[in-house]
Amino acid sequence: MRSRLRGLYAITDARQTDPHALLRDVEQALLGGATILQYRDKSADHAQRLDTARQLRQLTHQHNTLLIINDDVELAAACLADGVHLGRDDATIDHARQQLGPAAIIGVSCYNHLERARQAAGAGADYVAFGRFFPSRSKPQASAASLDTLQRAKREFVIPIAAIGGITSDNASALVGAGADMLAVINDLFAQSDIRAAAQRYQRFFENRGRLRE
After folding, report:
1. According to the model, what pLDDT value does residue 214 have?
2. Could you give the C-alpha distances from 102 to 75, 98, 122, 166, in angstroms and in order?
3. Structural Rg of the chain based on CA atoms
4. How do residues 41-89 score in pLDDT, each as one tens digit?
5. CB–CB of 29/9 below 8 Å?
6. Cα–Cα distance between 14 and 5 in angstroms, integer?
7. Which class for 22: exposed (0-12), middle (13-18), buried (19 or more C-beta within 10 A)?
8. Pairing relationship of beta strands 83-86 and 161-164 according to DSSP bridges
C-alpha cells in the first residue's frame, strides 16, 4: 500500500467547499490524477460526516484512489477508508492500528520536527507529513517548516513523505525537488475554476521529478 503514496494528495476543507458540490469537485480532482484524497471536516455532525465519507469511499473506489480520513479513527473504520491521518492532539498510532488493522495507512503530521517523525516511523506510521512550507489560508497560524527539514527527512526515512501548507503550482517544484513524495493541496486545487486541470498540473511535477532533483 505504501507504494501508492505518491503524487497529488487532495484534501477537502468543509469551510471552503460547498457541501453540495463536494462530490463533483472531488471527482474532478480524481479525474485530473489525484492519487490520494483526505476527507477533512470538523464542522458537520457525525451522521452527515459518515454519509459523506461513505459516498467518497464509493467514488475513490471507482477511480482507484486512496481515501484517508482526517483525525477520526472511528469514522475511518465506519466508512472502510484506506486509513487515517493523525495530528498532534489526535489518537495514537497504536490505537489507530488496533481499530483499523495492519493494512491501514496511518499518516502523522510532524510539522517541522524530525524527532516527531522518528517517533512516528518507529511506532509504525506509513507516512509522515511536514509543513506548513508557505503561508496557508486553511491554517494561517500553523508554524513554518523548512526545505532543509524536508531534505534531511528524505535522507533519513524510508517511508513516504508528504509536504503541506500553502502549496501552489508556482512553488511546488521546490518541494518535489527537495524530496516530497506527496503534495497535499487544498486551496490551489479546490478553489480553482478548473479543478481537473489544476490536478493535472500537479501530476506533471511528479512526472518530471528526476529533472527537478538534479
Report:
1. 46
2. 17, 8, 15, 32
3. 16
4. 987 788 999 999 999 999 999 999 999 999 999 999 999 999 999 999 8
5. no
6. 24
7. buried
8. unpaired
CA 106 to chain centre: 11
pTM value?
0.94
What is the SS3 assignment for 22?
Answer: helix
Residue type, 119: Q
Cell numbers standing for residue 25: 469537485
Angstrom distance (rounded) from CA 145 to CA 143: 7
Show the cell assigned to 101. Answer: 488493522
* Alpha-carbon distances, residue 114 vs 6, 40, 157 (angstroms): 20, 25, 10
| Helices (runs of H) and strands (runs of E) counted in the chain | 10, 8
CA angle 116, 97, 103 (to 5 degrees): 110
Grid cell of 184 as nine digits: 497535499
Cβ atoms of residues 151 and 176 within 8 Å: no
DSSP states of 130-166:
E---S--SS-TTPPP--HHHHHHHHHH-SS-EEEESS
Residue type at 175 in one-letter notation: L
Please report the domains of the chain, with CATH numbers, ordered by start residue: 2-208 (3.20.20.70)
